[in-house]
Amino acid sequence: MKRRSFLGMGAAAVLLGGASAYALAAGSEGEFEIMKTDDEWRKILTEEQFAVMRKQATERAFTSPLNDEHRAGIFHCAACDLPLYSSEAKFDSGTGWPSFYEALPNAVANRTDFKLIYPRTEEHCRRCGGHLGHVFNDGPPPTGKRHCINGVALTFKPGETA
Asked: Could you tell me the residue range of the domain that residue 66 belongs to?
């Protein structure tokens, strides 16, 4: 076997292995308090919300009005209305997506996402499983975390407190 063929097959095996791991992680929606079929989700979510929250897509950076939302209030899951983040934990990360240094207690859950081959921490609503975004270790104190969240996955209720 030629070296080039061997390296090509090795690269393909790594890519397929990563893709398979992602498919297992993304496809194992798990059991949530609120379970709906894709057709049922499509009836209550916009096309973009469905793509992000049910198919793990990402909205384009700097397109969400919630990125520039600075009023006091609570950010809720756009799919099931669970309170997720307080405006007190919101900060401007400069990334183009609403960012928070922590979620409200018992609001979100995480799993490993291999969509980009390397592992990332995906964040989803703990009640309906809706994909929210990802968590990174480059945020501000006190947690050092950056919950980078798709704005279409959220609704904002000004004046509400946790």
From this structure: 3-158
Q: What is the pLDDT of residues 114-153, one digit of tens each?
A: 776 778 899 999 999 999 999 999 999 999 999 999 999 9
Q: Is residue 148 annotated as a catalytic residue, yes or no?
A: yes
How far from 34 is each of 53, 73, 81, CA to CA, in Å?
14, 24, 11
**Catalytic one of 77, 125, 128, 148:** 148
Q: How many domains would you assign to the chain? A: 1
Go through 50-71 and write b for each residue having 16 or more CB atoms within 10 A of its CB, e for each that does not: bbbbbebeebeeeebebbebee
3-state secondary structure of 111: strand
Domain holding 26: CATH number?
2.170.150.20
What separation in angstroms does the CA of 157 have from each of 58, 70, 75, 104, 160?
A: 23, 12, 6, 14, 6
CA angle 139, 134, 78 (to 5 degrees): 110
- Rounded CA-CA distance 59/150 in Å is 6
